[in-house]
């Protein structure tokens, strides 16, 4: 470790992760006291978060033109985090790319306030502006806003399908009531 440095990059990342999970700076200090032998003050937590934020911002704006992405997995989810010193739930949109060799890579994850067509359009337009080429195939979560945004950006001929996990969840949430369905419904 360089002279005058008290924490490694992994330690700083751990502190920032605990803070992001919704724990305030004083609780982070208490939670990690034993692990770091008391070296974690409120200011250390804030400094660690600022360092991680700089790296995060650079990663979020990186050029995607050199990425050989052939498949794209797009999903929206709700996570609990800490924003403006308050624990809260936010809706984030995520893009995972699959390279030609099969390797998966996180392309982007952003707080867009929901899964509307406007949110997905802005998210996808950012990927396009950063150089991401049109993928050969897209896997989606089934949000109507996402499908409309995909068609608007890359055209109606872009092949996409709903994720099988989301299909199964929808079947569990919306079972067909065969007693009320017309005779022969659901039979193939």
What does this structure look like?
This protein is of the alpha/beta class and 188 residues long. It has two domains: 9-60; 69-173, Nucleotidyltransferase, domain 5. It has helices at 9-20, 25-31, 42-60, 117-129, 144-154, 164-173; strands at residues 69-83, 86-99, 104-111, 137-140, 160-162. Helix 1 (9-20) packs across helix 3 (42-60), helix 2 (25-31) packs across helix 3 (42-60) and helix 4 packs parallel to helix 5. The longest helix is centred in the first third of the chain and has 19 residues, at 42-60.
Write the layout of secondary structure elements.
Layout: H1 9-20, H2 25-31, H3 42-60, E1 69-83, E2 86-99, E3 104-111, H4 117-129, E4 137-140, H5 144-154, E5 160-162, H6 164-173
Parallel strand pairs: 1-4, 4-5
Antiparallel strand pairs: 1-2, 2-3
Summarize this, please?
With 188 residues, this protein is of the alpha/beta class.
CATH class of the largest domain: Alpha Beta
The radius of gyration computed from the alpha-carbon positions, rounded to a whole number of angstroms, is 22 Å
Poorly predicted tracts of residues: 177-188
Give the averaged pLDDT, no decimals: 77
Specify the structural class. alpha/beta
Which strand-content bin applies to the residues? Answer: 15-25%
CATH architecture of the largest domain: 2-Layer Sandwich
Query: How many H/I helical runs?
Result: 6
Order of helices and strands: HHHEEEHEHEH
Oligomer: single chain
As laid out across the biggest beta sheet, the strand order is: 3-2-1-4-5
By DSSP, the count of extended strands is 5
Helix content: 25-40%
């Amino acid at each position: 470790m360089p002279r005058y440095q008290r924490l490694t990059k992994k330690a700083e990342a751990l502190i920032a992760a605990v803070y992001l999970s919704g724990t305030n700076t004083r609780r982070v200090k208490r939670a990690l006291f034993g692990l770091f032998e008391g070296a974690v003050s409120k200011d250390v937590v804030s400094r660690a978060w600022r360092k991680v934020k700089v790296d995060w911002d650079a990663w979020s704006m990186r050029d995607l033109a050199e990425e050989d992405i052939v498949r794209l997995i797009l999903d929206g989810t709700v996570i609990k985090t800490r924003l403006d010193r308050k624990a809260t739930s936010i809706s984030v949109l995520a893009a995972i790319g699959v390279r030609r060799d099969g390797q998966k890579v996180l392309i982007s994850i952003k707080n867009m306030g929901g899964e509307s067509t406007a949110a997905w359009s802005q998210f996808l337009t950012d990927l396009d502006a950063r150089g991401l080429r049109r993928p050969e195939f897209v896997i989606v979560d089934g949000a109507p806003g996402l499908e409309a945004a995909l068609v608007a950006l890359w055209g109606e001929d872009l092949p996409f399908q709903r994720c099988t996990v989301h299909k199964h969840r929808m079947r569990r949430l919306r079972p067909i009531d065969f007693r009320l369905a017309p005779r022969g419904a659901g039979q193939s």
